[in-house]
Design brief:
- The chain is an alpha+beta fold.
- Helices cover 22% and strands 33% of the residues.
- The protein has two helices and four strands; from the N terminus they run ααββββ.
- Strands 1-2-3-4 form a four-stranded antiparallel beta sheet, with helices on one face.
- Strand 1 (55-65) and strand 2 (68-77) form a beta hairpin.
- 18% of the residues are buried.
Length: 100
């Protein structure tokens, strides 16, 4: 989970030598909460989780907040039986994604 959260705090293109690594989720802050954007957010979470073969994303829900986006991500870690429900806040004020 720590590795996954670290990857969500790297803006896509920010890591030298790995332009595809990192997330574009920050660009969705203050965008309309419409189906098209929710699908793009879910796809981006799945793309980032795919970098770690231990992770399996079950569901993703996005909720706009005053200063960012709150994501509820049900994620399973291989070798463990129970999935975890993570609430991840993308806070535009602090520019940090963190588990709440």
């Amino acid at each position: 989970i720590t590795d996954f959260m670290n990857s969500l705090n790297i803006t896509q293109g920010q890591l030298p030598g790995k332009p595809e690594y990192g997330t574009s989720l920050w660009s969705f802050i203050f965008e309309p909460n419409v189906l098209d954007n929710r699908i793009k957010i879910e796809n981006e979470i799945r793309r980032m989780a795919a970098y770690d073969p231990r992770l399996i994303v079950n569901t993703v829900n996005a909720y706009p907040q005053d200063n960012g986006i709150l994501l509820e991500v049900e994620i399973a870690i291989q070798m463990f039986t129970d999935p975890l429900m993570l609430q991840i806040m993308f806070d535009n004020t602090s520019q940090i994604a963190s588990v709440v």
